[in-house]
């Protein structure tokens, strides 16, 4: 009788291990899928790529060590993507508040993911955004807000 109970327990343990392994593999597959989405949209849709790579980081934290390789790759790419987006807002002559918002996001990402050069470049874009804002206020003869914007340059 004892042998039957032991076999059942052993069988349940084996089944539990298989199910656990399948769940972990599925979670890693979700991370891979998110990574591939980010990689495929890097050249055409930067905000979508940022969202996908941020998702890779989040999912990787949930999965654990088996997804650390993908997390590291995403962490290496993210600051540059944020900076690329901020730079595109400047080149496309978007409104100053949008440039400032993108530059602040790039700076925060650089801080979060440890990229000093990205932080420095994001700071330059941020300055340009405040300069554009100040110039815009000045041309509309809103001198008080122009002064506030120009004061943000320092």
Number of extended strands: 0
Name the beta content range. under 5%
pLDDT averaged residue by residue: 85
Globular, elongated, flat, extended or rod-shaped: what is the shape?
elongated
Largest sheet: none
- Helix-residue proportion: over 70%
Distance between the termini: 82 Å
Q: Quickly give the structural class.
A: mainly alpha
Number of helices: 6
Low-confidence stretches: 19-24
Rg measurement, Å: 24 Å
SSE ordering: HHHHHH
Description:
The structure is a single chain. The protein is about 85% helix and about 0% strand. The longest helix is centred in the first third of the chain and has 40 residues. The chain is elongated, with a radius of gyration of 24 Å. It is mostly helical. Helix 2 packs antiparallel against helix 3 and helix 5 runs antiparallel to helix 6. It has 6 helices and no strands.
Short structural summary:
With 154 residues, the protein is mostly helical.
List keywords for this structure.
mainly alpha, 154 residues, elongated
List the helices and strands and how they pair.
Elements: H1 2-41, H2 46-63, H3 68-91, H4 96-113, H5 116-139, H6 143-151
Helix pairs in contact: 1-2, 2-3, 3-4, 3-5, 4-5, 5-6
């Amino acid at each position: 009788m004892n042998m039957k109970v032991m076999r059942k327990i052993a069988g349940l343990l084996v089944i539990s291990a298989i199910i656990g392994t399948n769940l972990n593999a599925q979670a890693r597959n979700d991370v891979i899928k998110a990574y591939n989405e980010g990689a495929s949209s890097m050249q055409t849709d930067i905000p979508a790529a940022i969202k996908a790579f941020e998702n890779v980081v989040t999912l990787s934290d949930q999965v654990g060590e088996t997804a650390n390789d993908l997390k590291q790759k995403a962490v290496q790419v993210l600051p540059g993507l944020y900076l690329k987006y901020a730079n595109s807002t400047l080149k496309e002559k978007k409104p100053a508040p949008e440039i400032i918002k993108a530059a602040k996001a790039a700076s925060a990402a650089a801080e979060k993911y440890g990229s000093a050069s990205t932080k420095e470049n994001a700071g330059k874009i941020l300055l340009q955004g405040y300069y554009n804002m100040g110039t815009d206020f000045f041309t509309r003869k809103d001198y008080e807000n122009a002064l506030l914007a120009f004061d943000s340059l320092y």
